[in-house]
Specification:
The structure holds two protein chains of two kinds.
Chain A (H helix, E strand, L loop, with lengths): L2 E12 L38 H13 L7 E2 L1 E5 L9 E5 L8 E6 L5 E13 L3 E3 L8 E3 L6 E7 L6 H18 L11 E11 L9 E6 L2 H20 L7 E6 L4 E7 L9 E2 L6 E2 L2 H9 L5 H12 L3 H7 L3 H14 L2 H19 L10 H12 L5 H12 L6 H8 L7 H14 L1 H9 L2 H18 L6 H13 L1
Parallel strand pairs in A: 11-12
Antiparallel strand pairs in A: 1-9, 1-10, 2-15, 3-4, 3-14, 5-6, 6-9, 7-8, 10-11, 12-13
Helix pairs in contact in A: 2-3, 5-6, 7-8, 7-9, 9-10, 12-14, 12-15, 14-15
Chain B lengths: L5 H9 L5 H19 L2 E4 L1 H16 L10 E5 L26 H8 L3 E6 L33 H8 L5 E6 L5 H6 L3 E4 L19 E6 L2 H11 L17 H4 L8 E5 L9 H16 L3 E5 L7 H16 L18 H12 L2 H14 L5 H24 L2 E5 L15 H6 L5 H6 L3 E9 L2 E8 L5 H14 L11
The chains are: A alpha+beta, B alpha/beta.
């Protein structure tokens, strides 16, 4: 049987506010346990929440960026359950009246095509604290630093059809929240977490299969692996005559498997009701217009502009617009060198592999955009060849010069374009390889083609790569044939 | 000295007839001597009180002259007081010393009021007899075999017995007005949002409101002036200016339009209390008021609506008492579930557990619409009734309670009969309007209260009318024998 996968994602994005959603405590990651927990965060009797206006602004920014409906008012509700790191015994969240309503996000698939993913809603809520099970000798430690950190829970429609699409969607959300400056996107620190609702159905069937929810997957790679594993598990289960049960599962990256956490029957009845300590949040139209006016260029708009203005391929444009920092870097290189294709190739090629190798972010790049742009200018004006450029790039990365010009000058890498000098050098090369020259001249066209490369290699070697490759080709041909 | 009202104390302190330290010391001695009969205090903070009194005397010597400077009071034990036990009269908070002051506590301390201690109450303010306290029942000074009302029963008993001239209380369904009525006191529940709830341990957040209990309307005006005002720490606190309650006390009542709801005088009301209400109305007419009959048609739905909404909110508000971070924790918990179950099962009393169960049920999947949502709709209707009534009249007058104080233990086995005693007070909480109860006579030697209700933020009108009434009557001056 042919199976179709249906996926809906719930992404929790930690909002980059200075203070918590309902208290004045700081939200810095990694502080000593319980040093960023105020009376409110500790759930002290008699304390009350006061909503952080910045969290509302950030949620609205997101809503506008996904073309969502933003209602005139939204309501906080209490989600009641007991857990030691949930200090009040309820999480203040939103239920019937979320701040962000229906919207959508267009994602780019690997083949360059675009797909629209519906976003059901996004709502504000507070994070819980952390239970620490190590180092407490059979007891549990509670760290409430994270309790009350603002989260935006972004719920997608079940529009996603594969693990790869899921990853593309999460990456698009990741890029978007970073573009908007509302979330740092640091998945390792839990700033962006993902719950995956996964089901399968026979291809062509309209009704959804029973879904399982995989909780808290925290990297792009794990999202793909967890979903693929879960899909496989469900298909095998059904094909063996079993049925999928609605349940919450946990992905174990070490074993690459999901396992059951709790079934629907064991699920809490959260007894949601409107939080009586908070008034409905009224969103003025003027407030939204003010935010809309200040929205930055978003990833999709940037991608389209890159394609349109710089004639980049859909793929290149989507890679370069994937993060605001990378896009800014690319545009800075372009501003210097005025050659989009070369700039794109160098940023996506040499620069990316350099950063990957050293595990650096673009804003930590050892080669600045100005340096790279300056170097590309020298490729364009034939001062250096592409091959020499790689040496210049490495030198810049190693800090061996402030600019490409300085490196070229210091290392004497300037390309030789004087045809007299190239001819003299070629004569020496041909003389030193007289036997091969004889063979070449005796060969047919096909064989000659293969042998020609040998002479080019020898010539470039003799010139230490500095001879202009075009001229070498042309003059060599004349000498061998002539 | 213990017979002095807050207003008289202010004049005495200003005239240097006595010092704040002398006054507080005298009242502390009186508490030590008499409170064992009443059980109105959970904690007496003698040392702290004398230090506060000395500080107040120093401020006065330096030229300050505030109306509450040096005035002795005490707080219901659900207002958080930094470093002082704040128990909500519950075993689950028997060891809880609040790490901060409630806004009300803070404001009154800043005004120079001297807190003598923390007052007994129904556990978590759930009750109308003060019998559900972990620290034992409070007795009514007018008859030690009778309840003082609740939940601010300790506040009422202590003020009625002249242990303190005034106290803070809170009112969720009548918890200031009903004990005031049962102990011959004046008590005011302000408009919801008039007094900050920061630091006031929540029972039912959308209904709870702090307010004063004292002997006279004038004293309520003095104390409310110190309590009321916007507080950015409470999102439900309303940013409207606080009226000059004292200045409003002496306004003439000529032209005041009084409404008497016909629904108030049905079955269940003691006829002698009905007579007391009509007698009050006669006095007010003499002062220039006009009277008409009005209707509050949805009043009968108030008790069921209240007993869904309040327990629903309570079931959530009380979840934080889990034995994890503060308060009572059971011995040797075997695992997390055991910790929760036994800490809460052993820490909460029967009435609190009953309301948590009711509230949890009302919010459960499948029941929410039938109970909680429906109750909220009823609440809206009740509010609309009042809004419509106040188009016609300036003030609603009626009984505070259907009966005078009942005997200790009399309704313990029948919680619903105790719930029904709240019929006249609960609607003001559901609608959010202010209400005041004032002394209006006696039945079988037990005090009777009459309730005044006014539109939103018209506390000044309530105090004005009560004060004018108290200028021409002397019910409020009667003292229980033995005190």
């Amino acid at each position: 049987m042919q199976w179709e996968t249906v996926i809906g994602l719930e992404i929790h994005a930690q909002l980059a506010t200075q203070s918590k959603i309902f208290s004045g405590s700081a939200t810095t990651f990694g502080a000593e346990p319980n040093t960023q927990a105020s009376l409110v965060d500790l759930g002290m009797p008699g304390t009350l929440p006061v909503l952080n206006a910045e969290a509302v602004r950030m949620a609205c920014k997101f809503g506008l960026a996904i073309d969502a409906e933003i209602a005139a008012s939204n309501v906080f509700a209490r989600k009641n359950y007991f857990y030691p790191d949930l200090p009040k015994g309820y999480q203040t969240s939103q239920m019937d009246h979320p701040i962000v309503g229906k919207g959508f996000l267009d994602i780019t698939l690997e083949d360059g095509s675009s797909k629209r993913i519906g976003i059901t809603r996004a709502h504000l809520e507070e994070d819980a604290g952390k239970s620490l099970h190590e180092d407490f000798h059979g007891m549990t430690g509670i760290d409430l630093n994270r309790a009350g950190t603002p989260l935006l829970e972004i719920v997608s429609e079940p529009d996603i059809r594969s693990a790869k699409e899921a990853v593309a969607y999460v990456k698009a959300i990741h890029a978007l929240v970073r573009y908007l400056g509302i979330c740092d996107g640091n998945m390792a620190e839990g700033s962006l977490r993902c719950d995956c609702n996964v089901s399968v159905r026979p291809k062509g069937q309209a009704a959804f299969g029973t879904r399982a929810e995989i909780k808290n997957v925290n990297s792009f790679r794990f999202i793909e692996k967890a979903i693929n594993h879960e899909v496989q598990r469900q298909i095998e289960l059904i094909e063996d005559g079993g049925t999928v049960v609605q349940e919450t599962r946990l992905y174990d990256p070490n074993k690459d498997e999901t396992r059951s956490m709790r079934s629907k029957e064991e699920a809490n009845d959260y007894r949601y009701f409107p939080c009586p300590d908070l008034l409905p949040v009224v969103i003025e139209r003027s407030f939204l217009e003010e935010i809309r006016a200040a929205l930055p260029e978003l990833p999709v708009q940037k991608r389209e502009r890159f394609e349109r203005e710089f004639a980049l391929s859909a793929y290149d444009a989507s890679v370069l617009s994937a993060s605001r920092e990378l896009a800014d870097y690319f545009e800075a290189v372009l501003a210097v060198c005025a050659d989009a294709k070369l700039a794109a190739n160098w940023v996506m090629g040499e620069l990316s592999s350099l950063l990957n190798k050293d595990n650096l972010e673009i804003d930590q790049s050892p080669v600045s955009a100005a340096q790279l742009g300056g170097m590309i200018l020298r490729i364009k004006d034939n001062t250096i060849s592409g091959k020499i450029a790689k040496m210049v790039f490495e030198a810049l990365a190693a800090g061996e010069g402030a600019s490409a010009d300085e490196v070229i000058e210091k290392k004497g890498l300037k390309q030789v374009t004087d045809s007299g000098a190239i001819e003299a050098m070629l004569d020496e090369v041909l003389a030193a390889n007289a036997e091969q020259v004889e063979q070449y001249r005796a060969s047919d066209e096909a064989k000659r083609g293969k042998m020609f490369g040998f002479f080019v290699g020898q010539a470039m070697k003799a010139s230490k790569g500095k001879a202009n490759p075009g001229q070498v080709n042309q003059l060599l041909k004349q000498k061998l044939e002539g | 000295m213990h017979q002095l009202t807050l207003a008289q104390i202010a004049r005495g302190l200003a005239a240097k007839d006595f010092s704040a330290v002398e006054l507080s010391a005298a009242l502390l001695a009186r508490i030590q001597q008499l409170d064992p009969q009443l059980n109105s205090f959970i904690t007496v903070t003698a040392d702290q009180a004398l230090a506060q009194a000395a500080a107040a005397d120093a401020r006065r010597a330096a030229g300050e002259n505030g109306a509450l400077l040096g005035a002795p009071i005490a707080h219901k034990d659900l207002f958080c007081t930094q470093g002082v036990l704040t128990t909500c009269a519950s075993k689950i908070l028997h060891n809880f010393k609040a790490p901060y002051d409630a806004t009300v506590v803070d404001k009154l301390a800043a005004a120079g009021a001297v807190s003598l201690g923390k007052l007994n109450m129904d556990e978590f303010a759930m009750g109308s007899s003060n019998e559900s306290s972990h620290y034992g029942a409070v007795k009514n000074p007018w008859n030690l075999e009778r309840v003082p009302g609740g939940s601010s029963g300790g506040s009422a008993a202590a003020v009625a017995a002249r242990l303190i001239p005034a106290a803070t209380g809170t009112d969720t369904g009548g918890s200031i007005r009903q004990p005031a009525a049962l102990t011959n006191l004046t008590g005011l529940k302000p408009t919801y949002g008039r007094v900050s709830r920061w630091g006031m341990i929540a029972y039912a957040s959308s209904l709870d409101q702090g307010g004063p209990i004292a002997r006279t309307a004038e004293d309520c005006a003095l104390l409310l002036t110190g309590m009321a005002g916007f507080d950015a720490k409470d999102s439900t606190c309303v940013d409207v200016p606080v009226d000059d309650y004292l200045a409003a006390l002496n306004q003439p009542l000529a032209g005041l339009r009084i409404g008497l709801p016909k629904e108030y005088f049905g079955a269940g009301l003691d006829g002698r209390i009905a007579d007391a209400v009509l007698a009050v109305v006669e006095e007010l007419k003499k002062l220039g008021a006009t009277v008409k009959e009005i209707s509050l048609p949805n009043m009968q739905q108030a008790i069921p609506a209240y007993y869904v909404i309040a327990p629903a909110e309570a079931s959530s508000n009380l979840s934080r008492f889990d034995g994890v971070r503060f308060g009572y924790r059971c011995e040797n918990p075997q695992n997390l579930e055991d910790l929760y179950k036994r800490s809460r099962g052993e820490g909460f009393g029967a009435e609190v557990q009953r309301r948590i169960m009711v509230g949890t049920y009302a919010l459960s999947a499948g029941y929410y619409d039938a109970y909680y949502l429906k109750a909220q709709k009823v609440r809206r209707l009740i509010k609309n009734d009042f809004v419509a009534a106040f188009d016609e009249v300036d003030l609603i007058v009626g009984p505070t309670t259907p009966n005078p104080a009942w005997k200790l233990g009399e309704k313990s086995s029948d919680p619903v009969s105790a719930y029904l005693e709240d019929i006249y007070t609960i609607t003001a909480n559901l609608a959010g309007i202010p209400g005041l109860s004032m002394p209006a006579g006696f039945v079988d030697g037990l005090p009777v209260g009459v309730q005044l209700l006014a539109p939103y933020f018209h506390e000044a009108r309530l105090l004005n009318v009560a004060h004018q009434y108290q200028q021409v009557t002397d019910w409020h001056t009667r003292t229980p024998s033995g005190f």
